[in-house]
Specification:
Helix content is 50%, strand content 3%. With 159 residues, the protein is mainly alpha-helical. The chain has a single domain (2-154), classed as Peroxidase, domain 1 (Orthogonal Bundle), CATH 1.10.520. A two-stranded antiparallel sheet has the order 1-2.
Length: 159
């Protein structure tokens, strides 16, 4: 656990030292979207089971494929390109993080959740323990649960 704690400390330091307030919203949204697809009972689409394990890094593949199709494949990911670029774009912070020996095997899933965690802190939210260890998905998540929740929330007034 000491190695994981060292990794999170170093990865957080790298993210914070390169932070740009413009990425806070997209990064918070990205971590929510990656985690918000958890389904207790996995479903299938196009004859293949979808990975429905919540925060599993599938966002990275979805935004790469979404960008390639002008977000026709994954319209819910539109607008989060700024956070993707922050982690995997020209700064390639993911590569800088993985260059730290204790972070060499850090998953995309942990990186996405950590950048969301940093976004909460940088925007005045409270800090809490961060626990790494999320495996990366090998496919796409079922985003219909996010769409169902969006429709549900649009139909109700929240207090």
């Amino acid at each position: 656990m000491t190695q994981a704690k060292t990794c999170i400390t170093e990865a957080s330091r790298i993210l914070k030292s390169n932070w740009n307030n413009d990425v806070a919203g997209p990064c918070l949204r990205m971590s929510f979207h990656d985690a918000g697809t958890y389904e207790q009972f996995p479903v299938s689409a196009f004859g293949k089971p979808l990975q429905c394990g919540g925060a599993n890094g599938s966002f990275k593949q979805e935004i790469e494929d979404g960008t390639a199709t002008n977000f026709k494949s994954f319209p819910q990911q539109n607008g989060m390109q700024m956070c993707y670029d922050f982690l995997w774009g020209s700064n390639n912070l993911s590569q800088k993080i993985r260059a730290v020996p204790t972070c060499a095997k850090m998953s995309n899933a942990d990186m996405i959740q950590l950048v969301g965690y940093i976004a909460v802190i940088k925007t005045g939210g409270v800090s809490c323990p961060f626990y790494p260890g999320r495996p990366d998905a090998k496919g796409y998540d079922n985003v219909s649960s996010l769409l169902r929740m969006s429709i549900f929330l649009q139909d109700r007034t929240l207090y």
